[in-house]
User: What shape does this take?
Amino acid sequence: MTNKGHLTGTCAQGTGSGEFQFLIPIAGGTEFPVVEKYTSHYVGIVGTISGPVFSGVFEFLPQSGDCLITPLTQVAVLAQGTITS
Assistant: This one.
């Protein structure tokens, strides 16, 4: 999965938007490509993501910084959601 986007806000809350791309394996060994533009909203380390095909929830997993003592400069994102067609 790749993601290009931006966040606006603080460690307490904010919004974002962007586009992610991923492949879904299907029968016969082929892959179904998904390209999704989305908006997001977060409070603390949890938030929601919404787009035309994929929507769900996510959690930021801090990789560099902690928002308390040092600025948060890198995160991994754990997301779970629903794909609709």
